[in-house]
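INFO  loader      accepted 1 record
INFO  loader      residues=152
INFO  predictor   begin
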Amino acid sequence: MDSHETSFSNILVAVDGSESAQRAARVAIELAKTFGADLTVLHIMEIPAIPYMSDRPVEVDVKELDEAARSEGMRMVSKAASLADTRGVDAKEKVIRHMGSVAEGITDYAKKNGIDLIVVGTRGMSSIKKLLMGSIARGVVGSTDCSVLVVR
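INFO  predictor   done
INFO  writer      dumping tokens
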């Protein structure tokens, strides 16, 4: 294949703190370096379900939960962006909340921002995601028009 046949100019890597996402970030960084592409490191915020008890109301500070989720997301994104910096790649850091699935949040961001390659890991952090063996990766592959690289 001629090196000019396939080129990516705007790469997005989705991170969730898992080892799989860290591997995906390393691959995305190397691809961005190889192609001279822009790189965005994205985390879709998930707010944990609010616990309900049958007999007692539960007081939850939604703002505090939101701040904690945003802070954790920024930690994950910054870790990948710092790695990119050590490889000479400038990465845009994004943490967003999306109403709907994480896969939908990733593909919506990609569509709105002209992404031509999405890089994701095969498995996320939660045990449910591990049981589903990459439901987010499958969701991204099945609902985007751009290329997707799934990293094991």
